[in-house]
Amino acid sequence: MTTEPIVAEIVKTIDGLVTCGKLWAYLFGSALRPDSMWSDVDILIVCEVEKDGQLARDTLSELCALYPIDLVIMTSQEEVEFDFIRSENCQRIATSLCNPSRNISIG
Amino acid sequence: MGKDQSHWLIGALRQHTRVARAERISRSLVMVERKDLPPAIVGILSANPVTCADLEPLLSGEPQPAMIVNIPTRASWTGEALEKLAAEGIAFGKMYDLYRGLNQDDNLSNYQNPEYYFVERIIDQHRNVALQERRSDRVYRITRYVGPALVIALSQDYEVTADVVRTVYADHAPFDVLLKTNPYGRISQQAREAADKLGIQVVEQDELHKVLAS
Prior knowledge:
The structure holds two protein chains of two kinds.
Chain A: H1 4-15, E1 18-19, E2 23-28, E3 41-47, H2 50-59, H3 61-66, E4 69-75, H4 76-82, H5 84-87, E5 91-95, E6 97-98
Parallel strand pairs in A: 1-6, 3-4
Antiparallel strand pairs in A: 2-3, 2-5
Chain B: H1 5-13, E1 19-26, E2 29-34, E3 40-45, H2 52-59, E4 67-70, H3 79-88, E5 91-93, H4 95-104, H5 114-125, E6 129-136, E7 139-144, E8 150-155, H6 162-172, E9 177-180, H7 189-198, E10 201-204, H8 208-213
Parallel strand pairs in B: 3-4, 4-5, 8-9, 9-10
Antiparallel strand pairs in B: 1-2, 2-3, 6-7, 7-8
């Protein structure tokens, strides 16, 4: 069992997601190291608009129930604060469709 | 989850260096033979939160698992479910916990998540703590000798972001304190602002003593 089918599902989901601001998905952790054991698939979501992160979490919830996917969601500002992409060698795998006029409402 | 999870688990366990063989017992039970440790039976489910009703199919038959693994990494386990598992002597966790347990524990049913264990020990040993009740795997209610009772929710996240604060709050409120149990990583400024807006504290593990005392 490899992580490839799981990552492919995530890519398909994020590439089809319409968000208010830009949103990117990255792969990091053991799934990037072909020879290492993986217990979950580490995915970083970086979003310009905080509510888009919640949208991504909701949209990925079915996949997260099927597979051990560890979602880390942060705003662009937080990513700069943590320097997460560089320090974890994250690899970009997907980008949402950005439509700034989209009006999302999260309860 | 309606599908047979045992096949998925067997496929995932093939990469584990300590596993010699994994064999399906039923749609939610797998026998794991380890290279240098005793074999163990593992139960698998997918639920959020995990309740006693979710455990029933795994506990009512024979053989019983030594450990039950829940697939969603963010899912919680109710206090009643944890009491039931403790009474039956069965370990619990997510895939990460299973991998650790398979590496370390002769008897897989003895496995405990180290972060939860560490936090429970700090709370237990604090002189201002009269009673701790575990409401779920990551929420504790602490009765203190001095000061009002505190409800503490745990986050195992490496980086605590505003999304983590809001997600834990949505899943586990009401609580007073969000405790970052992972000793590595940080709490972002936006996470602290989100916590302020929600009227909760977000603290690092080394601040727990102070929180319990104040």
